[in-house]
Amino acid sequence: MEIRVADTALGRHRDDAVVLFVTQGERVRARVNSAGKAFRAGYQTLVNTKAFGGESGQLRVLTQSQDERLPHLLLVGLGKEKAVDGQSLRHAASSAARAARDLGCRGVTFVLPDGRGSAFRADNLAEALVEGTVQGMYRFETYKKKPSEDGIDQLTLLVGESDLKRARRGADEGRVLGEAVTFARQLGNEPGNTATPTFLAEEAARIAEENGLGLRVLEEADMRALGMGSLLGVSQGSSQPAKLIILTYEPKKRGKKRPETIAIVGKGLTFDTGGVSIKPSAKMEDMKFDMCGGAAVLGAMQAVAGLQVGVRVVGLVPASENMCGGNSYKPGDILKAMNGTTIEVRNTDAEGRLILADALAYATSKMRPKPKAIVDLATLTGACVVALGDGHAALVSNHDGLADELLDASQTSGDALWRMPINDGYRAQLDSPYADVSNLGSPGAGTLTAAAFLEKFTGKVPWAHLDIAGMAWTAKKSGYFSTGATGFGVRVIAKFLQARG
Ligand code: BES
Ligand code: ZN
Ligand code: ZN
Prior knowledge:
This protein is an alpha/beta fold and 501 residues long. It is built from 15 helices and 20 strands.
């Protein structure tokens, strides 16, 4: 999709469709008139009959002769002016673009709406509208014999001349974020027989090449040499070799000060059968999404390169399958992680924390320069889905400052986070009579004991964990989502890193 920002007057503009975003109670008669005199009566009727009042979620289409400058006019409600934010704009943009696509339009023009508050600044508007559109247009059709032929080829934002520069900057950011999210979605949607650890490493190599990122992939022999017995233990039942993908983004030099390093780590479990502690068959196919934390890290690395953030970012993705077979690890096995900690495996289905353990230990003890903070993302526990459903991802952190930064980024990005506690009570549940630690807590608070387990591998580095189990995919098309992977995490991480430098 090509994205343009122009200051053409609406009265002279040509496109397949034009969209007016309208806040509740706002009258846009002048704009409707500029779009085409033939729309006037229809608009008046919609307003008079209260069929359109700018309420959030409302969408009405007026159509005139196809020979006119602007054949279709779409009126899209934004709801109360005060309540408009990035999230409502993204959803509105997505439904507008989907409606235009359903009308057969190849091009669509958005007129930037008016309003008070920071959401209505031209850069913020452009960013949210473009990001929402890019997300809303994504479809996973890789395996369809006949992919859809309809689609929006060109999105134009119409702005006042004084806003051109700001809107262009916002539109660029929106495109970068939207494309990074759809890249992560695509990886998530790929089935387990395509999206193997090797495939993730190849995709990492592709984005490294395209975005000028550094890449190192640790193979199983490297892991053995480093003593990564935890990651290797999970992977040993699979015929697909495990990989530890390490991408590095270096910011352009700004002054003399060396930029700080932030590490992000994502669970790249490309299929989770549960292993010997096997999962029930129902919905097991969803476990192809168990690499969505890793996909979010790869997407975020693409985004930070596109946004040119000011900090150095290292993205790590431990990638493995969790299979049951003659060589699988078993309940009761004791694994030794890279930091020397021995782990009693009480349940082979609690494997995410095991592959993350070695990646976290590597990032916090081996990497130079040492990261100033580390954030991990993982579809880690079913308990998180029970606690927060598809409303929020859980944020667990031992550092209040870092947690607050992530909550701020959550607000601006629309990736919703909810902080949950960590303390010695949860930590103590991981005691094992046979090893330094068990991979299973007592029943209850599974998300928090899983987080407490991860913490043991982070040394003294400020750390935050996002359990994205309820957010990583969706069963239904809604808002800017379509069925399947959501790309959750890419935006909150990108915004967090952007704010950091
Ligand atoms: N990948 C799952 C977590 C999961 C479950 C994500 C459902 C999304 C939806 C993880 O590896 C797992 O199986 N966790 C176990 C942990 C338990 C054995 C302590 C779980 O949540 O049941
Ligand atoms: Zn599992
Ligand atoms: Zn898992």
